[in-house]
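Why show two proteins at once? Because comparison is the fastest way to build intuition. When a single record is shown, students tend to memorize it. When two are placed side by side, the eye starts asking what differs. So, the first record is below.
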Amino acid sequence: MASPGSELHTFNWLKNKSAVGELLGFNFESCSQMSLYRISDLLFKHKESIEQKLFKNIEGLLFTESQGKGRGYCQSVYRNL
């Protein structure tokens, strides 16, 4: 999903190959392609903020300062994923 290729590919992936709809309780069959395009444009507009918040949450879950590994270590691990 990190590099889906296109919005159309993502739309088909969501409808036919993923369990995202089941996990979220959403039927992607009822979602139009244009709706997905609008949503993806909105997500892309806020990409930096979303990535920063996700990284902060991941960092908090996986690593703590008490383990003796600071923020620089966490960033290098994240970049290598």
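Second record. Ask yourself what differs from the first in the token line.
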Amino acid sequence: MNVVINFSHPVGSRQKVEIESRLGEVEVIEIKAQFDLDAPTLRDQVDTLIADALEKAGGRPIVAIVPPSLSSASFWVGQAFANVPAIWMTRESTLPPSFRLGNIE
């Protein structure tokens, strides 16, 4: 089965349906990306998350990435998965706020 790696907020059931309508059946692997901004290096933390994601993917095809919200971390994730499309969510104007698939690019 193809894999989507999510470094951001958890993908809800509606969002997963939207993603699968574009990519086919996928397993979403949730990688909790909370960074210690007081640590000496952010890059080491990102590298650890990437290694964890690759291990959890277990060699299965990674068809898309939901990058972390922190821009510098997102940059390094983008470098590691340079040929994999990114998924971005858009916020709906509802209360409480909810998100839907923006696009896969």
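One difference worth noting in the second protein: Residues 2-104 form one domain.
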